[in-house]
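[job 0412] stage=fold_complex status=start
inputs:
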Amino acid sequence: DIQMTQSPSTLSASVGDRVSVTCRASQSISSWLAWYQQKPGKSPKLLIYQASSLESGVPSRFSGSGSGTEFTLTISSLQPEDFATYYCQQYKSFALTFGGGTKVEIK
Amino acid sequence: EVQLVESGGGLVQPGGSLRLSCAASGFTFSSSAMNWVRQAPGKGLEWVSGISSGGSNTNYADSVKGRFTISRDKSKNTLYLQMNNLRAEDTAIYYCASSGRGYYYMDVWGKGTTVTVSS
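[job 0412] stage=fold_complex status=done
writing structure:
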């Protein structure tokens, strides 16, 4: 199985900050990567697919980049509603796998 | 409105069985691959199983292979997960999620149903 490793596991930031989350794959997955946001008590929400394509309705402050084994989710200016946990997921091959998550907390 | 509604969760003893259901509405269910994803208390997301739009191809995580069976009924717009020989480590919220664009990322999620395996 392809292992997905996210860093950091926790990130403390302030409103207005630019923040980045990294996701590394144990082997090349080309651009077969998605990012999700999950708030406490809620189901996950798709933000980015194909590594850099923004899902409809998702604010443009979210962006994704990378290919191969290293990927980044960037929030250009953190808003109060962005405090949540973020997960990457590879869909190059089964078993589909998620990263361990990055919790973005208020500093 | 695109919607996925899970049901069938509950408390079950180790070794027992449960069948989860996921009712789909607001989109063409028969054209979408579907998945089950779970989240143990306080933990991250774990993909459990996926099924192709036509139902002919199924895939499972190693942790559930041989114990869980995914299926779908296009006449009822419903996805199922039959879970047998349940273990304590299967305790989680189980989410139903669609992959409606030809690739296995999850574009629509249900609210989840909780499965607790305990004596």
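[job 0412] summary: The mean pLDDT of chain B is 97.
[job 0412] exit 0
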